[in-house]
Design a protein that fits this description.
The chain is α/β, with parallel strands linked by helices. It folds into 3 domains: about 120 residues, NAD(P)-binding Rossmann-like Domain (Rossmann fold), CATH 3.40.50.720; about 140 residues, no CATH class; about 80 residues, Rna Polymerase Sigma Factor, Chain: A, CATH 1.10.1740. It is built from 16 helices and 11 strands. The strands form 2 sheets. A 7-stranded parallel beta sheet has the order 4-3-2-1-5-6-7, sandwiched between helices. A 4-stranded mixed beta sheet has the order 9-8-10-11, with helices on one face. Strand 3, helix 3 and strand 4 form a beta-alpha-beta unit. It is globular. It starts with a strand and ends with a helix. About 45% of the residues are buried.
Amino acid sequence: MKKIISILGSTGSVGRNTLDVIRRFPQNFRIYGLSCKDNIGLLRRQIEEFEPEAVAVIDPDKADELTRRLRRAKLKVYAGTEGLKKIAIAEKVNLVIGALTGTESLFPVLEAIRKKKDIALANKELIVGFGKIVMEEVKKNKAIIIPLDSELSAIFQCLQGRDISEVEKIILTASGGPFYNFPPESLRKITVRDAIKHPVWRMGRKISVDSANLMNKGLEIIETSNFFCIPQEKIEVLIHPQAVVHSIVSFVDGISLAQIAIPDMRIPIQYALFYPHRIKKFLSTMDLSRIKELHFFKPNLRTFPCLRYARAAIKNGGCLPAVLSASDEVAVGAFLAGEIGFMDIPGVIKKVMDRFKVQGSKFKDTLKGLIEADRWSREEARKIVTQFSK
């Protein structure tokens, strides 16, 4: 029986890679819903190829424009986050791909979980900032949630059939991005073009910048802790430039399991799409004899302070992980827009976190409180960006 899929964020990097896997297995999958923030040009081409029953565009004006341009009587075009929710909870859908960045897909994903849809999630922000609430809903509704991120997918696979109490530690590997061996003073000269040119992975602009300053790995520490209910003290980060060992799970008996594969997002995506089954690959197999050497070493926390900020956020708990995630999103956006420098990103994040520690007692770690803290953090980050850019 075919899986019927809605993709929240089909025009981004994860969404495009998901569709690339799906087009190779037309006998296994059918697309019900596609969606984007505002890239209706690409969305229109996806509509022509995959013939969904419904689409959602977060920008209402772009949704209206798409409706005028399509002239498809049977295609439903929805606007806003309410539109995302409609394609996520449609009765026919049994698998929802959460591929949007940011928090726009929070309520659609929560509603899909409550409808007992299977979820394949790439959106770090939801598990970092709202992980407790999301995972409680998963448990309460006995839903299935599968990580699409390569490192979390690796952990998920290593833990299949095993009890989390048997885990001694989890090692998250990081490619280190393009600057892991740069001296600190040279990082102030980094341009946007430098930062988004990842040496191994092909990713979106925001996650490429997060990878370059290791915030991506900081977010994954929080994500791993929330997703697998494991304390952050048991999560270690190692730089692994070859990027073929995606994570390692060490057990209390001294045995460690590592997931090894070529660095291609379509591998964890294929795993999630076919879960709980494995099917014959269409990508090449890792040939370790050609790599010859695998290197692992600890990151420099003075050069890359975002890792420290992430650990501080999860240690303090409450709304602080959501504050970290929201301020990072604003800071990276400002860097990509040319408003601040590369090394100003951790500066913005640190200032927002410090202000929150003073002013944030009014925010509770309820769904409403977390949303308010997220909004407050974005506003504070924008104020700080303005100060940095003067």
